[in-house]
Specification:
Layout lengths: L23 H6 L8 E6 L13 E6 L10 H7 L5 H21 L5 E4 L2 H11 L4 E2 L19 E4 L8 H9 L6 E4 L5 H8 L5 E5 L3 H10 L2 E4 L8 H7 L4 E4 L18 E4 L4 H14 L5 H8 L4 H26 L5 H9 L7 E4 L3
Parallel strand pairs: 1-2, 1-11, 2-3, 3-4, 5-6, 5-8, 6-7, 8-9, 9-10
Length: 359
């Protein structure tokens, strides 16, 4: 059964939920989960702040500590036009208190899971807590290699500033002999369209259904990626299709794409989010393309399968439950131990489990 907070009932919450950021800590704390033994939160903002008791196990799967409150605050304010003026001061004040709340509520989490080693480092920096890396699941059964390659490059993403989609268009505008197809919609679409008007080799398809994206991923010469991501699903989906990846070499992609220095490379990593660096990387890719095989790409992508994720999560939760039960026994007077032994002997998850979805 899904439960929502009071924010769900506020005007425009579905479309403009970010406006209610100052209320989100309060909202998540109003969820009464006292009737559950195990809480699993999936968090990129406030979900890990849900209240839990001493007899409950709270495991938080962290996609990132609140990006715009920690190391990316200045970038987000700048890209949102909030780097100057009264609105900027108010935004910084709100983020200051969000940051304090975020750090304080880390104490309510019994075990952290990071979606990449990159995010594990952020967790340690923000909360001074260790974490276990379990990569997210990628549907490698749906994304498969099929059909012949065509002579075009593909980029697909939401058109938001940190994805740097207009920069990719600008790079291909400077290489008129190379064709780019771009899939995606969002605030930066207008910027990309303005650049593409002068580049007949660039085609912007806007939003497309999953079947169209899959068709292009299977037939593209390479997948181009310019974002600094916490993990990054799209580059893995491309590799699952046997398609090489040309990606900005920072963030989670360093854990998901093997560069040309690897024995079995699956792509090319470039060092700067600039047109010059990207165009150089494309040239480097074309010179070394014969070294990157569809088999290597597919094999690498299978490291992130859904089955692998389910197995690792199940093992982690069962291990933490066993540990928590042993700690509970150790706290009991010795005469009560025998009555509680069955808890430790069982490898089954308790019946009262609640997952808190990503917020």
């Amino acid at each position: 059964m899904a439960r929502t907070t009071f924010i769900q009932k506020l005007p425009g919450a579905r479309k403009h939920y970010s406006r209610y950021l100052p209320l989100m800590p309060l909202a998540i704390e109003q969820l009464d989960l006292s009737g559950y033994d195990l809480i699993i939160s999936s968090s990129h903002a406030v979900a890990k702040g849900v209240l839990s008791g001493p007899d409950q196990l709270h495991i938080s799967y962290v996609n990132s500590p609140i990006r715009y409150a920690w190391d990316l605050q200045h970038q987000y304010l700048r890209e949102s036009g909030l780097d100057k003026g009264i609105k900027s001061s108010l935004a910084r004040l709100v983020l200051h208190y969000i940051r304090i709340w975020d750090q304080r509520t880390a104490a309510g989490v019994d075990a952290f899971i990071a979606n990449s080693a990159f995010i594990g480092a952020r967790i340690n920096k923000a909360y001074r807590r260790d974490s276990t890396v379990i990569y997210p699941p990628v549907d490698t059964l749906a994304f498969t290699a099929l059909g012949a390659r065509q002579d075009f490059y593909l980029s697909a993403s939401r058109m938001v500033p940190y994805k740097r989609m207009p920069m990719i268009v600008e790079a291909f505008a400077a290489m008129p002999d190379k064709r780019l197809i771009m899939i995606g919609d969002g605030p930066d679409l207008a910027k990309a369209q303005a650049i593409a008007r002068l580049a007949p080799n660039v085609t912007l398809l806007g939003f497309q259904p999953a079947a169209v994206l899959l068709e292009h991923m299977r037939s593209a010469r390479a997948f181009v990626f310019a974002a600094e991501e916490d993990f990054g699903i799209s580059p893995i989906e491309a590799q699952a299709c046997g398609t090489p990846v040309i990606a900005f070499g920072k963030g989670g992609v360093l854990e998901t794409v093997y560069g040309l220095d690897h024995e079995h490379p699956t792509g090319v990593l470039y060092r700067q989010q600039t047109v010059a660096s990207l165009t150089a990387a494309i040239g480097e890719f074309e010179a070394a393309q014969s070294r990157i095989t569809p088999q290597a790409c597919r094999s690498n992508a299978e490291r992130f399968s859904v089955a692998r994720f389910e197995q690792e999560i199940k093992a982690f939760v069962e291990n933490r439950l066993s540990t928590a039960q042993l700690v509970y026994l150790a706290r009991l007077p010795q005469q009560h131990w025998s009555a509680q032994q069955a808890l430790v002997a069982s490898s089954e998850l308790p019946g009262r489990v609640v997952p808190i979805k990503t917020v």
